[in-house]
Predict the structure.
Amino acid sequence: MFRNKLILAALSSTLIFGAAAGAGFAAPGDGPRQHPGGHGPGPAAFREITYVRMLKQFDTNKDGQVSKDEVTAGLDKIFAAIDTNKDGSLTPGEIREYRKTQMQAMRGQRKQETGENKDANAAAATADNNDQGRLPREGHDGRDGHRWMRHGGNIMRASIMMQRIDTDQNGQISKQEATAAFDKLFARMDRNKDGVISIDDMPDRPLL
């Protein structure tokens, strides 16, 4: 059950922010496009990151590629999970609550992993007591201001998401709008136009 919640969290990140970003990242043949404020991955890196996430979560038959049917099934599942009042639209409040649930699930997973590795971490901490390499304590990011900077970044991403997906500007995301945004993302990802997203669609970049 807990694993399923984490999968839903990852899927919703792909759905909401991936579809919104996908509506704006460079298409094949376009020049480099900078993200707002100059932060975040460029178009090629975004494509690779999105492919890995989609492959991990959408590729139900494990054939190493993501079909349109698999994407549609994933979209339907996540949209239904976020649409808590089942009115066929996603409101900012529903999206915000779902993101909150995601963060709680991820924090729970980190705590679980930390507990499993407690003995190993304790040994390392004894040898090196200068706090380098330690996970930040809950509610503290290790550097002043970073928590608030991240919060502001989330607000900005949510605003961009609404602007790009909410095409009728009514303050909600309908199933039709979500599907249209994800169709656009799929079309951009499927560079060779063979109807699936696979490793062949990824940029040819050196490892180092």
User: Anything to note?
Assistant: The chain has seven helices and four strands. The CA atoms of residues 55 and 62 lie 8 Å apart. Helices lie at 2-22, 43-58, 68-82, 92-116, 118-127, 146-165, 175-189.
